Batch of 2 targets.
Target 1
Amino acid sequence: NAGVTQTPKFRVLKTGQSMTLLCAQDMNHEYMYWYRQDPGMGLRLIHYSVGEGTTAKGEVPDGYNVSRLKKQNFLLGLESAAPSQTSVYFCASSYYGPYTEAFFGQGTRLTVV
Amino acid sequence: GNSVTQMEGPVTLSEEAFLTINCTYTATGYPSLFWYVQYPGEGLQLLLKATKADDKGSNKGFEATYRKETTSFHLEKGSVQVSDSAVYFCALSIIQGAQKLVFGQGTRLTINP
């Protein structure tokens, strides 16, 4: 039972490079989220999706783009990486409903130098 | 708006000590409340939840009671173990059009033998 799988687990980028983080879930969840985790800041929502073909901005969307072409996948893109985007990125998914919890991937540690 | 505030960390205790991690929330509506735990190098996983006022969530010896009158959801454990060392996140989920999931900043707990 894979749950939520993130790829890659670690990455080092140079300033200005681009990359895509992939999140895949096998639980048929409607909702998917991308968070970043920084020391002392908790989890901050970057973008989320309420279903296939839809995306919406979260708390800190600048510098990121997302796509959800298939229900099971949610991609996070950095078009031109900046050192401020050094962080640990978590993907999560959930059913739609007031009582449902989110399921998280293991995270991607990204360093931008 | 919706927000979650947790007690500042880090928290360091000796094995078998009593644990309390405070959590208060602000919500424009009736949220469900959650505690997630993050072990080193891993993603977040659900520890316990409560979906309405006066509900008590419990798991692995941890407990938290949904207190609407004080807008609180404090995490407690009577006797902590070294294996409880982790970061703990309080969170709320609420339906306002879309489903919103809001996290506190996390509290790092270290248990010494």
Note: Chain A has a mean pLDDT of 94.
Target 2
Amino acid sequence: RKEVEQDPGPFNVPEGATVAFNCTYSNSASQSFFWYRQDCRKEPKLLMSVYSSGNEDGRFTAQLNRASQYISLLIRDSKLSDSATYLCVVRGAAGNKLTFGGGTRVLVKP
Amino acid sequence: DGGITQSPKYLFRKEGQNVTLSCEQNLNHDAMYWYRQDPGQGLRLIYYSQIVNDFQKGDIAEGYSVSREKKESFPLTVTSAQKNPTAFYLCASSRISTRTQETQYFGPGTRLLVL
């Protein structure tokens, strides 16, 4: 089993719709969780951290479920510019090492 | 501007040749990392360094070497022993902190192709 697993998609989303997807992690001792966004042939960029109580940043909402060991990302009112691959990233119990999921591709269409 | 730079953007390697990818940061970060990304896959850690003159192997270090002579610089050499080097190489840096929300920031990447 991979340490961090994501549905690769693509999720085809009409512009203005809501899309949500999850990421599961295997190490129950994981400390920190993040969502990164990666555009085609570009570097990953931090989208948001995921806090235990859940957090929102504009149209983006992240949730953490420690009991079931998954995090989620919800995008409301999708824009064409939201088309990208979203990487789930988990920081382990020790050190600064991060483990990356394979990414979920989102395509927002007019 | 503060950030991470990588060069070159594209690099071509001939059979049996060693090539070196450059990574520089002016964020005053202590830790630096090298990742490899293959199409449709997540990032895999090659090497990382948390202090000058010290570095550790990541998950896929075979066929690669690094040095950390300066805090700002962490070059990666892809040696001829790496049989499948074609990939997108990403350098990252971070502060070293017990703060759980500390994370890594990436350079623009180098795309390596084998001729």
Note: Chain B touches chain A through 25 residues (CB under 8 Å).
